[in-house]
Amino acid sequence: MKWPARVLVLLASAAFGVVHATDWRMDPSASRLEFIARFETVPAPGVFKDFDVRARFDPQSPADGRLDVFIRVAGADMASADINKAIAGAEWFDVARYPQAEFRATEIARAAQRFVARGTLTLKGVQQPVEVPFEWTPAGEGATMVGEFVVKRAPFRIGTGEWAATDVIGPDVVIKFRVRLRKAER
């Protein structure tokens, strides 16, 4: 086989071997983003009521994917008007100055039977690397992402002043999510 024919065969093989990631959009009515802090020894749960997830992902080729999460932090709800008002303040989320948190994955990789999205979490003006493990379950024209990970609150200046110590409010916050996605229309 002469070199031009070999080049054509290689190009054709590459073209047919390319996997195209699917664009996904979140179904807000079927998605949930929770956080669980610890007050003394008791779990103190809350939810972010207003968030959005956008992904480009193919589980057969995760390295080609991307994941972007946008959270309107004023939508944080801990089931108490007084607590909600407090966590919106400067010592906690400071929603007046930092109305949105973001996670942008720069890498998605397979990790055993799951995946892990590695990227940057921007919260309260601070950027920190974060790893987000998740399970991916396809169903018809949609898919569900489920996962859980821990964020240290101190690097993000969440709970400052009298709340900086970790004896009353623990140092770790557990983030749990269940996100229903549907293929984006083109």
Helix and strand layout, with pairings?
Layout lengths: L2 H15 L4 E5 L5 E8 L2 E7 L2 E7 L8 E7 L3 E2 L3 H8 L11 E12 L2 E10 L2 E14 L2 E11 L19 E12 L3
Strand-residue proportion: over 45%
Roughly what is the average pLDDT, rounded to an integer?
Answer: 89
Strand order of the largest sheet: 1-4-5-7-8-9-10-11
- Please give the oligomerization state of what you see: single chain
Report the total helices: 2
Low-confidence spans: 3-19
**N-end to C-end Cα span:** 41 Å
Radius of gyration: 20 Å
Structure at a glance:
The protein has 186 residues and is mainly β.
Describe the structure.
The protein is mainly beta. It has helices at residues 3-17, 81-88, and strands at 22-26, 32-39, 42-48, 51-57, 66-72, 76-77, 100-111, 114-123, 126-139, 142-152, 172-183. Strand 8 and strand 9 (126-139) form a beta hairpin. The longest helix has 15 residues, at 3-17. Residues 3-19 have low confidence and may be disordered.
Descriptive labels:
single chain; 186 residues; mainly beta; eight-stranded antiparallel beta barrel; 12% helix; 51% strand; elongated; disordered N terminus
